């Protein structure tokens, strides 16, 4: 699903966020990217989501060479991903339902199909009875579950999460982890950037350890 | 195809709602656009009405009859009497050779030179004002031919120069109107562009999220384009209302003045064509201003 070979990312000013990173993540696999702040976790995810482009090296995502995706095709490329953010990034002037429906609306999904799929995603996230509420009235854990429902509503083959539990306590983090494990069991490729050691130990999944932009440890594909 | 149409409809109504939720800002923008559009349209009305008014005068030109030199004052006077009796003639002015000379001296400044000639070189002139019932171009031409055939007449000249000059002025004013319309059209582009710029920046977060979930630039642009289109169109409607209001306020005095001249003239508003052009130009300028602004600012907003 993801194939990086000798990928470098240098920011203007000469800061090397990623140095010679090579990795492979098979379809349906689940992995954590970990390391200290500034180790390159977020940069790795941003390259995969084409928010930024690598300075050097080759990156393939979903068998697409990222260097060959022109600017105007980026939206179509992103429709094959689901992204979960640490700060949820929900639209505060729209209801839970409308937030989750957004990926379907932008892709021009048949409007008779939308309610069914939004409710399926909300049901999975345990938010079915909150669809008419606005994000600010929800707790942090609930808001993140809305974020996850939005990330999976269009059933992407690849789910990315950047510190998804960064703002949540242990119990809520476990609930969120359960959701990710569930998507993994249903065949979605999941890549989570986190420095939450407890979460990684509970998940018992593959771990990619970044240090100063270099991949220093890879526990390898796990069962 | 139906989904596409439905999405456009959705963008249209969501933007209507957004505009209605900020009535003050919307009203201010629409008012500025309306006043800006009303200016060239008002000038157009002035030109159009002046043209309509003066087209009625075209036939009411005077005919100057330059009499032969051997025709004396008394004979000229008798001719004037005869002409006054014609049904096609409303009025005849008799300008004697002396009067013509005095006027020429006064106006031309060649008095000294004329004195040196010793005798008056100017002919006597009869100025014939045709009756309004005979002011058509063809009947007028016929009258001129008839008068030119008179034994006493040397030259008959239909005097329409001043009408032509008026039309010359109107042509200049009209050209000026188009220049003004061009400048104010550019102003509308800037007004709408600035409004849309603020709208884009205030929705920055939403735009980033939409880009992250795979929204194309066209999808993001759509509501802003409708916003520009709607504001431009509403501005044009306001401009139309302003013009109607001005006409209504001016109609009374204009009619009184026209009555004093014995004319049935009343000011005309924008015709169907001009109204359609105004509304189309408003909506088109709104759309274009928005397109330019969104194209410019959307590139700057990339997800973090």
From TrEMBL, chain A:
Q: Which InterPro entries match?
A: AAA+_ATPase (IPR003593), ABC_transporter-like_ATP-bd (IPR003439), ABC_transporter-like_CS (IPR017871), ABC_transpr_LolD-like (IPR015854), Cell_div_FtsE (IPR005286), P-loop_NTPase (IPR027417)
GO BP annotations of the record are: cell division
GO CC, sorted alphabetically, is: plasma membrane
GO MF entries: ATP binding; ATP hydrolysis activity; transmembrane transporter activity
Q: What is its main location?
A: membrane
The listed locations are: Cell inner membrane; Cell membrane
Please give, as recorded in its UniProt entry, the membrane topology of this protein. Answer: Peripheral membrane protein
Q: Which domain of life is it from?
A: Bacteria
SUPFAM superfamilies in the record, alphabetically?
A: P-loop containing nucleoside triphosphate hydrolases (SSF52540)
Q: How does it assemble?
A: Homodimer. Forms a membrane-associated complex with FtsX.
Please give the function described in this protein's UniProt entry.
Part of the ABC transporter FtsEX involved in cellular division. Important for assembly or stability of the septal ring.
Entries under NCBIfam families matching the protein: FtsE
Q: Which family does it belong to?
A: Belongs to the ABC transporter superfamily.
What name has this protein been given in UniProt?
A: Cell division ATP-binding protein FtsE
Q: Which organism is it from?
A: Candidatus Muproteobacteria bacterium RBG_16_65_34
């Amino acid at each position: 699903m993801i194939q990086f070979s000798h990928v470098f990312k240098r920011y203007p000013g000469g800061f090397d966020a990623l140095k010679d990173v090579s990795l492979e993540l098979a379809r349906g696999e689940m992995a954590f990217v970990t390391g200290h702040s500034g180790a390159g976790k977020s940069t790795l995810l941003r390259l995969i989501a084409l928010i930024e482009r690598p300075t050097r090296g080759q990156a393939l995502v979903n068998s697409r060479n990222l260097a060959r995706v022109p600017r105007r095709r980026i939206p179509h490329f992103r429709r094959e991903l689901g992204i979960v953010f640490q700060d949820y990034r929900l639209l505060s002037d729209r209801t839970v339902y409308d937030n989750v429906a957004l990926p379907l609306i932008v892709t021009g999904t048949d409007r008779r199909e939308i309610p069914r799929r939004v409710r399926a995603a909300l049901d999975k996230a345990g938010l079915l009875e909150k669809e008419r509420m606005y994000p600010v009235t929800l707790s942090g854990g609930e808001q993140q579950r809305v974020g996850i429902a939005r990330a999976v509503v269009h059933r992407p083959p690849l789910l990315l999460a950047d510190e998804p539990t960064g703002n949540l306590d242990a119990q809520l983090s476990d609930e969120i982890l359960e959701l990710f494990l569930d998507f993994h069991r249903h065949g979605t490729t999941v890549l989570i950037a986190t420095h939450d050691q407890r979460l990684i130990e509970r998940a018992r999944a593959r771990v990619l350890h970044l240090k100063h932009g270099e991949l220093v440890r890879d526990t390898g594909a796990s069962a | 195809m139906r989904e596409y149409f439905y999405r456009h409809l959705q963008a249209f109504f969501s933007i209507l709602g957004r505009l209605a939720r900020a009535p003050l800002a919307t009203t201010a923008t629409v008012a500025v656009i309306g006043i800006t559009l009303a200016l060239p349209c008002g000038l157009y009305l002035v030109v159009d009405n002046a043209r309509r008014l003066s087209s009625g005068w075209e036939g009411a030109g005077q005919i100057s009859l330059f009499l032969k030199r051997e025709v004396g004052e008394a004979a000229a006077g008798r001719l004037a009497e005869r002409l006054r009796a014609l049904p096609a003639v409303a009025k005849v002015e008799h300008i004697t050779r002396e009067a013509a000379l005095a006027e020429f001296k006064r106006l031309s400044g060649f008095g000294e030179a004329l004195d040196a000639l010793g005798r008056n070189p100017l002919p006597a002139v009869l100025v014939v004002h045709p009756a309004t019932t005979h002011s058509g171009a063809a009947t007028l031409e016929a009258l001129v031919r008839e008068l030119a055939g008179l034994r006493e007449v040397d030259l008959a000249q239909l005097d329409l120069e001043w009408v032509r000059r008026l039309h010359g002025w109107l042509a200049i004013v009209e050209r000026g109107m188009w220049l003004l319309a061009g400048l104010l059209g550019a102003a509308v582009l800037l007004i709408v562009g600035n409004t849309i710029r603020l709208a884009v920046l205030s929705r920055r977060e939403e735009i980033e999220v939409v880009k992250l979930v795979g929204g194309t630039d066209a999808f993001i642009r759509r509501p802003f384009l409708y916003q520009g289109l709607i504001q431009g169109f509403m501005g044009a409607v306001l401009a139309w209302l302003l013009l109607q209001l001005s006409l209504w306020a001016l109609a009374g005095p204009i009619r009184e003045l026209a009555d004093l001249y014995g004319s049935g003239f009343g000011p005309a508003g924008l015709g169907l064509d001009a109204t359609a052009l105004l509304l189309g130009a408003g909506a088109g300028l709104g759309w274009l201003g928005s397109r330019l602004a969104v194209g410019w600012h959307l590139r700057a907003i990339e997800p973090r």
